[in-house]
Design goal:
globular; 89 residues; 6 helices; mainly alpha
Amino acid sequence: VTGLAAIVEGHPKYAAQHQLAVIECLEDTDETLQRKTLDLLYRMTNPVNVEFITDRLLTFLKDTTDPYLRQDLTLKICNIAERYAPSNA
């Protein structure tokens, strides 16, 4: 996950090829891995996968009780919604 995080910065199309493998990391019980995975998914978001990734983030948000993680995910989801909202102009 850390390696893909480095790749996504400069070459997002290469990281996108591993999107499903990244999502599988959310099933791991390691909280650190889950947090890194959530951050990576946030950074991997693009116009093609925005709905899919947002759905995963929302599902994780519903299931977590950690107040810090809830706040962080809420901010990320709001940022995604703002970034990829259709223009009303």
